[in-house]
Specification:
Helix content is 27%, strand content 37%. The termini are far apart. It is built from 6 helices and 16 strands. It folds into 3 domains: 50 residues, no CATH class; 94 residues; 95 residues, Jelly Rolls. Strand 6 and strand 7 form a beta hairpin. The longest helix has 27 residues. Helix 4 crosses helix 6.
């Protein structure tokens, strides 16, 4: 019986080590992993220290890699980064707001969406941005942790192509619910305004004369499918809009920069 227990323990230990090494290969990329394989086996020899229960503690792994300068993030010139963020939780608006806040905090603002998808497996947001280095996974992990989120898996396909799986079930960001049939003043935004407009019929947006607002307004359904959008390259101080049927959210921004909304906006939503 003792021999069986020892054998099972060894098998579990080998499986755990293999799983951790496979995760390291995902994080660093195949070529980088192979070049550093001997050092990584020494660095992570006590593999059980990098688990929380049966799950790999990605944050601790990233912290160890960062402390040993094992990330290769710099490029010789500015390049296009393609990054996918995925979550199993059914909260796309919260997920997007959390990621936008995190990326902005890390200094990434010129972000364009390449793909948005929601299905039974969860939600995915794929972005493109220009940068002289890849996003630092450890810095991003720290920023996500501050918002009660955590990376559950990370895959580096190439130096410019990454995918993050993120758990947001403990997040404390909530969608902005605005009272209907009442004028509401919105402060200068750090990110585009995202507002729940379910079952509303019309929307009036007014901008201060001190602003330089070039409207960029997008209506989404509950699955974040775009229903309608308004984009104007000329200044506007008043937008009176009918809300599309089945609209759940509206995103209000500026065609060029949010600095054009330094005095905020006022909105009136009619039900």
């Amino acid at each position: 019986m003792v021999r069986v227990f020892i054998i099972l323990s060894l098998l579990f230990s080998f499986a755990t080590a293999a799983s951790l090494q496979a995760e390291l290969k995902n994080i660093l990329g195949k070529n980088s992993y192979q070049a550093k394989k001997k050092f990584l086996k020494i660095l992570f020899k006590d593999e059980n220290n990098f688990y929380l229960g049966s799950q790999i503690d990605i944050h601790k792994v990233l912290s160890t890699l960062n402390a040993n300068n094992l990330f290769q993030l710099n490029f010789k010139s500015t390049r296009d980064l393609h990054i996918s963020f995925a979550t199993e939780q059914d909260a796309p608006l919260i997920f997007l707001k959390m990621l936008q806040n995190s990326l902005n905090t890390l200094g990434y603002s010129a972000i364009s969406t390449e793909k948005v998808m929601k299905d039974s497996s969860g939600f995915l947001w794929k972005i493109k941005l220009k940068a002289s280095k890849a996003i630092d996974p450890f810095q991003l992990a720290n920023e996500l942790n501050r918002q009660n989120c955590n990376i559950t898996r990370l895959k580096r396909y190439s130096s410019t192509n990454w995918r993050y799986n993120i758990n947001i079930k403990n997040i404390d960001i909530v969608p902005e619910n605005i009272q209907y049939n009442k004028k509401i003043t919105l402060k200068k935004p750090l990110n585009p305004y995202w507002i729940d407009i379910q079952r509303a019929k019309s929307l009036i947006i007014k901008s201060s004369k001190a602003n330089n607002w070039h409207p960029y307004i997008v209506f989404y359904d509950k699955n974040l499918k775009i229903l309608d959008n308004i984009s104007k390259e000329i200044k506007s101080y008043n937008e009176n809009l009918n809300i599309p049927r089945n609209a759940k959210y509206v995103k209000i921004s500026d065609v060029y920069t949010l600095e054009n909304l330094k005095r905020g906006l006022s909105i009136y939503i009619s039900k």
